[in-house]
Amino acid sequence: QVQLVESGGGLVQAGGSLRLSCAALGGTFSTYGMGWFRQAPGKEREFVVAVTWSGGSTKFSDSMKGRFTVSRDNAANTMYLQMNSLKPEDTAIYYCARARGTEVHSTTADYNYWGQGTQVTVSS
To answer: Is residue 13 predicted with pLDDT exceeding 90?
Structure first.
């Protein structure tokens, strides 16, 4: 069993930046694809970005492309989400998840381990 722990959320002004981390404790991290999702109040969980097991390929939601970057450090069992040019509509709880496979996956059904989430609030 792998436990995923997100950190780095907080309150930031519009146009600012945050870097989220996702640490994997126990289980296997380096041979699985990973992803970030987010959920705003009253909305469904939304895909943000996915990264392959090696970090060599990524897939972004169109609305985040160009503003967010994802990386992973398999030696440290950690994935990162760098968020720049943040907008109020980016306000949500951000979740990291481990995929069932090795490649990029963009639906929640493709993931079977989830973190508890970290709150990101962007003020206007």
So the answer is: yes
Query: What is the length of the chain?
Result: 124
Tell me if residue 88 falls in helix, strand or coil: helix
For 19-64, what is each residue's pLDDT tens digit? 999 999 988 999 999 999 999 999 999 999 999 999 899 999 998 8
Distance CA 67, CA 116 (A): 24
Surface-to-core class of residue 21, CB atoms within 10 Å of its CB (0-12 exposed, 13-18 middle, 19+ buried): middle
69-89 per-residue burial string, b: 16 or more CB within 10 A, e: under 16:
bbebeeeebbbbbebeebeee
